[in-house]
Each structure stands twice: as structure tokens, then as C-alpha cells.
Amino acid sequence: MSQAPAEARRAGVFVALDDLLRDRLTTPQHVREGRTPLRIFLPWALVLGGLHGLFIGCYALFNGTTGATTHMLAVMAKLPALFLFTLLVTFPSLYVFNALLGYGLRFRATLRLLVATIVVNLALASSLGPILAFFTVSTKSYTFIVLLNVAILGIGGLASIAFLLRTMIRAQNAEQPLDATPDPTATAAPAAATETPRRALPLLFVWIITYSLVGTQMGWLLRPFIGHPGQPITIFREREGSFVEAIWNATAGQATPNNLRR
Q: What is the rounded CA–CA span in Å between residue 223 and residue 209?
């Protein structure tokens, strides 16, 4: 009898992730009622980030790099840390943007939404992880694996941005701010107010670009993720250059062990 509640809780955790991916937990009422709780989705961010980190670490492992196992474990910890540290740095700015632009998200709702957005990003990225592992086994091209991983994380990022925009627009169009007690005497917002998201989208995109730049530079600071076969494995690299510079050099055919070490 005692096993049944535990099994139900475990099933509920998987159902919650499935509902999030199927867009069943993104209405203002769902967020207001706490149906995207941090106690469920924060662990999911850690698990999914670690899973994708496992696939990333396969490159060093399959190429026989010394210390590859330690490197893989480090990447499994660093990938979720990348997203959570980026959230820590950019969360205050999104909350202020949200308040100024009238999207109706209160503090707790904003935090829950951003953690859910990270989960969406990592769920898609980790689902593409087997593809990354396949190419890791079938090619030894370091530059190709780096760019493929960037593309996978970019796809996840675009999907999570769409998720964030859709949810915030729904929140702004709701009659009541999220986390607020419904007021039965309140009247519907005027038609002009529902147009606010469209007018505010350029400013919201400014925040999205800021988040992307912080995230890519955070990844550069936490590198290496894909260990270069010609370099010794280290947990962190020295602070130098930037992610944008490295990708530019890679796409221009100028990548070397010194300017593209991830």
C-alpha cells in the first residue's frame, strides 16, 4: 500500500513534463495556481541538462582522451549550471521589463515561467542528443561537432523563446495579473490594452537578445564542454576571447585549438 503513493508521485512528475511540452500548463490560470511548480520543474532542468551534457561528453570519451570520464561528469554538471546561472543574471531585467510592459506576471509567476522555459529548451536539446552522439561516433571532426552542438542548443533556444512569448502574451491578455486574487467586480480590459503585447514585442526581443548574449558568454566562461582532442582535459579554461569570436572563426574556416576550445 505504501508503494502506491510513491508510484503516483513519480508518474505525476512525468505527466507534468508531458503536459508542459503539450502546452497544457501555460494558461494564466495554470501559472497562477502553481501548476508549473519549481519543486517539479527545477529538478527536471537539472536532469535534462545533465542528460544533454552526457551526450556532449561522448566526444572526448569516444576519442580516447585522457580523463574523458571526469570531463563527461563535469559537463553533466556544467550544462544545467549554464542555464541556471544565466537565469540568475538575467531574471531581474526580465521582471522589470515584464512590469513596465504590462504583461501581468508577478515575481513568483515570472520565476516559474522562466524555469519552465529552460525545461522546454533542455527537453528539446536532450531529445536531439542521440543525433549528436551518432555523429560523435561517426566522425572525428571537432569543429563539426562543436557547430552541431551549437545548432542543437540553438533549436532548443528558438523553441523556448516561442514558448516564452506565447505565455507572456496570454498573461497580458488575462483579466487578472498572475498570482493575484480574482476580483469578481473587475471589468474586462479595454481593447487597446490587449494590443500592448504587439507594441511591446520589440522591447521584449531586446531582453531575449540580452539573455542570448549572456547565455553564450556564460557558456564560454564554463568551457570546455566538448574537449579538444589535442588539448589536455581541464574543468575550466582560462578567461580569454568570447563565444561569438570563436564561432566566427569556426565558420570562417579559421578554427584552431587556441581560438575554438569548447
A: 21
Residue type, 121: N
Expressed as residue numbers, the domain containing 162 is: 3-180+188-251
Spell out the residues 6+ positions from residue 244 whose beta carbon is closer than 8 angstroms to its own: 216
Helix and strand element counts for the chain (H, E): 9, 0
Distance CA 223, CA 237 (A): 6
What integer pLDDT is reported at residue 257 of this predicted model? 46
- Look up the pTM and report it: 0.79
CA distance 231 to 19: 43
Average pLDDT over residues 188-210: 62
Instruction: Report residue 242 as a C-alpha cell.
Output: 568570447
Tell whether 52 is covered by a domain: yes
Q: 98 with 197: CB under 8 angstroms?
A: no
Q: Which long-range contacts (CB under 8 A, 24 or more apart) does 245-253 make?
A: 246/220, 247/147, 247/150, 250/143, 250/146, 250/147, 251/147
How many domains does the chain fold into? 1
pLDDT tens, residue by residue, 13-68: 889 899 999 988 888 788 767 678 889 999 999 999 999 999 998 898 888 777 88
Q: What is the pLDDT of residue 247?
A: 67
